[in-house]
Amino acid sequence: MIDTSIKVFNKFKDGSLPWLELDLDFSSYIKESEFTAVEPYYVTHREGETHKDWESCCLHGLGIDKTRVATDYEYDNELTAPYNWTPLANLAPTVRKFWEEFPAEKYTR
Hints:
By secondary structure, this protein is of the alpha+beta class. It contains 3 helices and 4 strands. The model has no long low-confidence stretch (mean pLDDT about 85).
C-alpha cells in the first residue's frame, strides 16, 4: 500500500499522472443556484491548446479570471504564488465548504 502511494505521489510530482479518480460523494455539495451564480464569470481557458472552447473561473486562485498557472502571471512558481479565495467563492459557499473540509494542507488554483 505505501509503495503504491509513493508511486502515485511521484507521478503527481513529476506531472506524468494526468488525472486521479477519487471515490467521493459530491451530491451534498451540488447546488444548482451556485453554478448559475458563477456562470457569468467564466473566461476562455487554455486558448491556443487542444482544449477547444474550454472556459474556467477561479473560486480559489490569483483572481477570478486567472485560470492559468502562476508562472503565466509572472510568479516564480505554483507553491509561492499568493493563492487565496476570490470574491467568487462568496457566490458558491457550498463548493467553498467542500474544499475547506477536503483534507489538504495547501491549495493552488
